[in-house]
Amino acid sequence: MFHSGKNINSSGFARVEKVDSESKLEEFLKTFDACYQKDDPQNPYGKLGDYLKVAKKA
Predict the structure, then answer these.
(1) Stated pTM of the model
(2) Structural domains of the chain, count
């Protein structure tokens, strides 16, 4: 897939925070995990399972 040349709305970029503490990491992982749930028709991938553990180590 190639970029279509459309402009990207970057107005929300200032709200992006660097994960630089254990508490922010836990908050990120909790949110990340909540995005991928079993039996969600909008999510063909299912639960993160072991991938979540790998993401935490990374």
Answers:
(1) 0.62
(2) 1
